Amino acid sequence: MHKLLMKKITLAAAIVGLSAGALSVHAADEDAAKALLKKNDCFKCHALSKKKDGPSYKEVAEKRKGEADAVQKLRTHMTTGPKVKVEGKEEEHKILKGSDAEIKNLIDWILSL
Fold it and tell me: How many CB atoms lie within 10 A of CB 37?
């Protein structure tokens, strides 16, 4: 009986360990995300939690929460230079420059807010 209990405990611990490892692999790197935003001068128009010329990153996360295509929508917005309204005038959104991995990390970070 004791051996069976130990096997169950070991199995449960292994499952929990694997789950925690899987979560950390997908966790966004906040420092890298902020560095990419700074490098691309995104903080000129956006802030973490207050509205500037553009919405805050928390507003973006709230708006996209639960959308199946949120990642793709944000990637398209950040990498294609769509038209946006700033102070009533239409202008092109700056195209984010970074690797696919950097952009994916940034989007994951924004959506985690």
Answer: 20
Residue 44 lies in a domain: yes
Torsions phi, psi for 96 (to 5 deg): -70, 130
12 in a structural domain: no
Evaluate whether 46 touches 54 at the Cβ level (below 8 Å): yes
In a 10 Å sphere around its CB, with 0-12 CB exposed, 13-18 middle and 19+ buried, how is residue 82 labelled?
exposed
Structural domains of the chain, count? 1
Length of the chain: 113
Per-residue pLDDT tens digits for 6-47: 555 655 555 554 444 444 445 899 999 999 999 999 999 999
